[in-house]
Amino acid sequence: MEWKRLAVGPIQENTYILWNDKKEAVIFDPGAEGKKINARIEELGVKPLAILLTHAHFDHIGAVDAVRAKWNIPVYVHEFESDWLEDTNKNGSAHFSQNITAKPAEHMVAKGPLVIGDFTFDVLETPGHSPGSVSYYLKEANAVFSGDALFAGGIGRTDLYGGNQALLMKSIHDQLLTLPEETAVLSGHGFETTVGTEMDENPFLNGF
């Protein structure tokens, strides 16, 4: 398994391209700059199978339609945010005087296994940053795509629609910090880290 991280848009949101030995790929959170994302997919020579959304905030969905249309692939989002793609108030873009939307997702996800091609993800429900935030753990890649739940040295904000700090802390503790310490944490912003590093060094988690 290999992945590439692309920081896109004014908030430098992380879009990830994950692929296997068969060059099948999954795209996580295409947040902006659809042409840039599609060009990188072409450069890598991979075949996208799906778009997986960790959550439906505007900075994570801005290029959904461009990537979906280019590769004719479905979009997956948690059922709690099924209507957020079209709602600028819920996805937060209206809060920043923007109008960022996408067409509805084809599939809803919930806690448990998710099989796409030869990929088998463990969908971890990690609400708090938003009600439908999920993290996708792939044991074979020793990685978790955590969205905006957990960052290197930080945690997600909880002051937007549906945010809940106590719930976010519980999600991180119960769902993410219980993964193997060597697990790579691929966050929605910033650089990669590991579960063990965040357990030891993240100031927001000390004493939890």
Topology overview:
Elements: E1 2-8, E2 13-19, E3 24-28, H1 34-44, E4 47-52, H2 58-61, H3 64-71, E5 75-78, E6 107-109, E7 112-116, E8 119-125, E9 134-138, E10 143-147, E11 150-151, E12 154-155, H4 165-176, E13 184-187, E14 193-194, H5 195-201
Parallel strand pairs: 3-4, 4-5, 5-6, 10-13
Antiparallel strand pairs: 1-2, 2-3, 7-8, 8-9, 9-10, 11-12, 13-14
Keywords: Hydrolase, Metal-binding, Zinc
Pfam families: Lactamase_B
Protein name: Metallo-beta-lactamase domain-containing protein
CATH H-level superfamily: Ribonuclease Z/Hydroxyacylglutathione hydrolase-like
The largest β sheet comes out as: 6 strands, mixed
Order of helix and strand elements from N to C terminus: EEEHEHHEEEEEEEEHEEH
**Which class best fits the helix and strand makeup?**
alpha/beta
The CATH class label is Alpha Beta
What is the second-level CATH architecture? 4-Layer Sandwich
